[in-house]
Specification:
By secondary structure, the chain is mainly alpha-helical. It is built from 9 helices and no strands.
């Protein structure tokens, strides 16, 4: 009996290729904060555009969708870097106007901790020094009175006027120059990221072009095969 059991040959189980390795059912790289539905919208639109059917075609369409998704991510990264620089009070591209407005919010909402908790994050060091010297806390009986005085100083002196139509030409020219300078600073300090984004866009465009050519060849081969089969049947 033992010899008979030993003589039985077990069927050989052949491993099937993993579909994920071939891209058909591959998962896109979705980072935290990204919406997977956006990627699915891109992929679905491409499948419909190319009328993709079968593993070979869908694999190439997935690759194109993935490349388009990475292009979008690269562009968003540059934008996020520029925004981060504009919110960093220690960075040359810091948007001082936005910081002053945000600090005003904390002066009104939590005057007790506005200066100690938020000033360094939202104001440049010279502005903090200016406010402390111009409006010292000890000159006011209450924190609320001090906060109102600081807010009025920011609104009347430090912040640029918010209604350009009422400005005289000299003040309007100064405001326009300030906005333009902020734009220059933002561009200068993300220039490396802009160049990297351009390189990334070009590499991904080349990948999309290659996958598109492969997709066209596959579709053409399928059509030729179908014509051959029809021709053979009609003979």
């Amino acid at each position: 009996m033992r010899k008979q059991i030993q003589s039985i040959s077990l069927p050989i189980t052949r491993k099937r290729p993993n579909a994920q390795k071939h891209g058909v059912f591959a998962e896109p790289l979705i980072l935290p904060g990204e919406d997977p539905r956006e990627f699915e919208a891109i992929r679905s639109a491409l499948i419909e555009e190319w009328d993709a059917c079968g593993p070979s075609e869908k694999s190439r369409v997935f690759g194109i969708a993935d490349a388009e998704w990475r292009k979008l991510r690269s562009r968003r990264f540059v934008q996020a870097k520029a925004i981060a620089n504009s919110l960093n009070s220690k960075h040359p591209a810091f948007d001082e106007t936005r910081g002053l407005i945000a600090f005003l919010y904390y002066l009104y909402s939590e005057p007790e901790t506005a200066m100690s908790k938020h000033a360094r994050r939202l104001l440049r060091a010279d502005k903090i020094l200016y406010l402390n010297e111009k409006i010292p806390r000890q000159n006011f009986e209450s924190i609320a009175e001090w906060a109102v005085a600081v807010a009025e100083e920011i609104e009347s002196v430090l912040l640029p006027p918010l209604e350009p139509e009422r400005l005289d030409p000299a003040t309007e020219a100064l405001r326009t120059a300030t906005v333009r300078m902020q734009s220059f600073l933002t561009t200068i300090h993300v220039r490396n990221f802009l160049d990297d984004d351009l390189d990334q866009q070009e590499r991904l465009d080349a990948r999309i072009a290659r996958l598109t050519r492969e997709l066209i060849v596959i579709k053409a081969a399928k059509q030729e095969l179908q014509r051959t089969l029809i021709s053979d049947k009609t003979r």
